[in-house]
Amino acid sequence: MGFAPHLPIRLDPREIAPDTFLLRSAQPALGAPLSVSLNSLVIRGEEPVVVDTSTVANRDAWLEDLTSLVDPADVRWIFISHDDEDHTGNLAQVLELCPAATVVMSWALTERSACSVAVPPERLRWVDPGGRLDVGDRTLLAIRPPVYDSPTTRALYDPTTGVLWASDTFATPMPAEPVDDVAEIPPPMWAEGFAMFHHHALAPWLSMVDHDAYAAEVRALRALDAEVVVAAHTPAITGPSVATAFDHLAALPRTVPPPHPDQAALEAALAGAP
Ligand SMILES: [Fe+2]
Ligand SMILES: [Fe+2]
């Protein structure tokens, strides 16, 4: 059978702020006419930073995109937002390719990923939520976002460009034909997809959280006043969409998500496969 649902769709890198590039691919969703972003980030400042390392399935394209933007010998930092395989898929390769790079993690992330990728301790830097990372011409801020699927998750904010890397937060499906910006997703589809992904694929505990405590976390992230929000599983969020995205995020504990594809959808997908 030629059905290959997890082959990534290649998308070109996009400069989303000065010297700040979103490395992109997308994955067709199984059982639904949707696709899902699989992004990472490069900040090409004085000390270049690679933010997350994409997936094994996307290795060749990702390494090609990365090395087209930055000389691997110049990469000084590899920031890993959390220990899921769609964020650490090429960490071993980048470690080898970029001998001057230090891996920015935390104690918990190091421990949780040690069985798959062993980073030499002398190449580690541990930064906890609220911690800062001086990368020469800017100081980046590590933040625990309100929603995550690993306890090690840290978002990363660059105050010099106003770009927030939100890790898995703000995840949403997009049309089967990938788009560059959430503004290109029909608004009802964005709202429903955003709720479906956060409740079903990231944080099923959202319906159990204390509303006031959660709202305070969202307010704190919003207070950064990010100009552009990018993350692993969403097209770029820019302009007026930033405020809408935070509204969607704030509403999650009170939002009843649509159902996710079930066994019947799987059978339909299999029946329609070539
Ligand atoms: Fe994740
Ligand atoms: Fe992810």
From TrEMBL:
Instruction: Please give one Pfam family short name.
Output: ODP
Among InterPro entries, the record links this protein to:
Metallo-B-lactamas, ODP_dom, RibonucZ/Hydroxyglut_hydro
Query: In the record, what lineage is assigned to the organism producing the protein?
Result: Bacteria, Bacillati, Actinomycetota, Acidimicrobiia, Acidimicrobiales
Q: Boundaries of each Metallo-beta-lactamase domain copy?
A: 37-233
Query: Can you name this protein?
Result: MBL fold metallo-hydrolase
Species this protein is from: Iamia majanohamensis
